Amino acid sequence: MDNVTPLGGDVYEIDTRMAGYSGVTAGYLILGDRPCLVETGTSTSAPVVRDALTSLGVGPEDLATVVVTHIHLDHAGGVGDIAGYYPSAEIVVHEKGARHLADPSRLMASARMVWGDKLDSLFGSLAPTDAARIRALGDTGSVDLGGGRELASHYSPGHAKHHVGLLDSATGDLYVGDAAGVYLPETGDLRPATPPPDFDLQTALDSVALFGALGPQRLLFSHYGPVADVATTLERSADELRVWVDLTRQAHSEGMDLDHAVAMVREKTRERYSAMASENEETAERFELLSGAPSNVSGIMHWLDRTKARNP
User: Fold this and answer.
1) Assigned domain for 62 exists
2) pTM greater than 0.70 (yes/no)
3) Overall domain count for the chain
């Protein structure tokens, strides 16, 4: 299939075709003794992911595990549908996200407030998963891939309080979710993902530092794809966080409202990203969809307000 890319080590990247786009959200199949899907993509992507797994020889009873790095709908919106397609699969998520997979009503209501009418076309609706099939991870944990191979889970809550990174013991691949930002392979751009309500700068930097300390051989971004230059990429990830926070802090201290702060940060960061050049209009559109300036600035503003409230 044209949306499946072998990455070596029995790992396959699956373009979930989120909202009909290519290169927006990736799921990954680890095709070992106990096949494991990392990230489901959205609910509307679930049939695309199922067809990809079928093309790789994974039938309804073959998938052992589904793991999500966190429960945002572009990563985990398809969990309920995928659980239905693969009735033997265990669903693995951090303990702070588990109840939302069993009962998605609050998550969907908050997503509707953020996205409005765009919610249905971008993400669809997260279907509930039987709580008995969900395994909740603590701050560390592991997923058995068979044959002595495992995914080690490491709590990394800078992006969201229910976020984990996943390290493959056989390949050294680290599935970074959104905690290292959003990467565009076409341009090599890397931009932070700092949405409300959970963003915290020090926690985010600590998560990036943890990823480096794990010594991965390769980073597998959910947005989007594999990156082999681990140290440079994680350093860039931390730099981008600091740049966006510094600019938003400046706007915040000048009393700007969100719209004006977003406009200022957009202008001052534009030259950092090749994707934002006028000739890359389609790529820029994807960047804004995944790591939109309004979402990023809003998340940082929310954090600054919390920090100010704690330290008046």
Assistant:
1) yes
2) yes
3) 1
Q: In this structure, what CATH number is given to the domain that contains residue 135?
A: 3.60.15.10
Looking at residue 224, its pLDDT comes to 94
With respect to residue 306, please indicate whether it lies within any of the assigned structural domains: no
Backbone angles phi, psi at 301, to 5 degrees: -60, -45
Instruction: State pLDDT tens for residues 165-209.
Output: 999 999 999 999 999 999 989 888 999 999 988 899 999 999 999
Between CA 129 and CA 214 the distance in angstroms is 31
Residues contacting 144, CB < 8 A, separation 6+: 34, 64, 65, 150
**What 8-state DSSP symbol labels residue 45?**
T
Residues 199, 157: Cα–Cα separation, whole Å: 8
pLDDT, tens digit (0-9, with 9 covering 90-100), for 257-294: 999 999 999 898 888 887 676 556 677 777 677 668 88
Residue 254 lies inside a defined structural domain of this protein: no
- Residues 6+ positions from 235 with CB-CB distance below 8 Å: none
**Would you say residue 279 lies in a domain?**
no
For 94, residues 6+ apart whose C-beta sits below 8 A from its C-beta are: 70, 136, 137, 153, 155, 162, 163, 164
